[in-house]
Amino acid sequence: MSISSIYEKTNQGRRLNITWNAILTIAGRDVTRFVREPMRLAFSLILPLILIGGLAGPMQSSFGSAVHYSLITFSMTGLLAMTLFQTAMSGLMSLIEDRENDFTQELFIAPISRYAIVFGKILGESLVALVQGVVLVLVGVLLFHVPMSFSTLLFIVPVSLISCLLGGAFGVLLVSLFSNQRTANMVMPFLMFPQFFLAGIFLPVRSLPWYLDILSRITPMRYAVDLMRGVFYAGRPEAADVLLMHPIFNLIIIAVLFTLFLCIGTFFFVRAERNR
């Protein structure tokens, strides 16, 4: 082996270490900010808990016998995926604040890949979302008696991470479209609230009108919700009535969407930073 090839491999290993250190540093910054804001966890769980108790309970009493499965469990699984997706996505909105404070300019002059910077941000917000997901699962099991086996818990962890990554990548795409925080705050409710219903969080979306079915199929959150339910209902007779697609198809679609959102969002976000 020549000296030049050894030198090249050493440089490649050094660049890889620098990249991973940058990813972990950026992710650690977001986790640290979360730890310093404990009320953020409390307020992020208020809405899911209100929705479970205020909607799922009455719906179970009114329609539970008609659908032949627990609407509380159905809603709980949907809200878990929604919380993970939305928390990671909303966390990426802090890039707009970083942009207004010129922090992103400082990041982008660093000698690391732009994708590494964005992925570090996604990873950090995903870890924050996972903490909220763990608390929500505990509340669902202890307070609402959602059935949960040990094997289900093992599969929930990677599926939860996948939901977070998809939400984070979707957040990158949205960040690339907004020029300031005020615009983002105005537009975000119009983007998120329809997904709560089109993704089938509370009620099944099998029999939607054709135009709503099209909107449901292009809703990213739908596939995270259905994948999460694939874990909860695996091997149960209710799976045929609850699941929209096989988990493998959901994984493929999520992988494609994640790649598209990450690449397109990063490209336009970096271009916007260069044009400032």
TrEMBL record:
Keyword Transport: yes
Pfam families (alphabetical): ABC2_membrane
Domain spans labelled ABC transmembrane type-2: 39-272
GO molecular function, one term: ABC-type transporter activity
Origin superkingdom: Bacteria
Keyword Metal-binding: no
Membrane topology category: Multi-pass membrane protein
Keywords tagged on the record: Cell membrane, Membrane, Transmembrane, Transmembrane helix, Transport
Family per record: Belongs to the ABC-2 integral membrane protein family.
Protein name: Transport permease protein
Record organism: Reticulibacter mediterranei
